[in-house]
Amino acid sequence: MSPNREDFELCSKWAVSVDEMARHLMQLQPTIIHFSGHGICSERVRSRPSSRDRDVGIAACSNGGIYLKNEHGGPQIVPARALTMMIRSAAASARVVVLNACYSDAQACELCTAVDCVVGMAGVIHDDDARSFSVGFYRARGNRRSVGNALDHAVATLAAKQLADEHVPRLRTRDGVDARQVVLTSAT
Fold this sequence. Notes:
The chain is 31% helix and 16% strand.
């Protein structure tokens, strides 16, 4: 419903494996990479996830990251270093990464070595809140707002809906980049 929705070509890929993600990054050469799924934090140990959490219950883990599928269809943790390497080697066009997954803020700092802006979550984000965040973020982007303003608008949307996770989204940038100046259009 945004006036500049033609600026975006949305290519959705569901429940991908590491190899599929690498292939999609090479083929699509995205400017924005949006991951919506599960994340894990190396400091957090949970025995059972809540039905509303986007976190994966684990007994213990040695490394944080996001979850993709392995070759057998099971979960594969992809740590920040590996994700950064994948993006750097396969999608040099990427400028923004959105990690709409629990505990993904820890990966955001590493990813800023490969892209200008990274949105991560500084804790648990519930499914409904993650969806509301995405709607607000891309509503602003569809109105040609900066990445910084898009984050502010998405957080304001969470606050207006009185959702508990308004404090969770975080924006990180590469050294020397001002997210309020990063405005991506079809000409970018």
